[in-house]
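Appendix B, record 7
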Amino acid sequence: IAIKEQKNEIMREVVDKLKPRYKTLVELRYYKEYSYEEIAVITERSTRDAARMAVQRSLRRLAEVMGYER
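Structure tokens (predicted):
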């Protein structure tokens, strides 16, 4: 359990480095486990797919912060 908590803390620190718009999307999808439909409504995106694409962009930014490149 301590290792899991440590991993969660490290991940939170990395997510906190994201710009607010990306951070919000990651938090909604992976910490609060909202659906893409819910994220679309909350973030005022036009469709579920628009929300999904925004989350994917946020994950790419997260990977960059972690030092992973495409």
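Remarks on this record: The mean pLDDT is 94. The CA atoms of residues 17 and 59 lie 13 Å apart.
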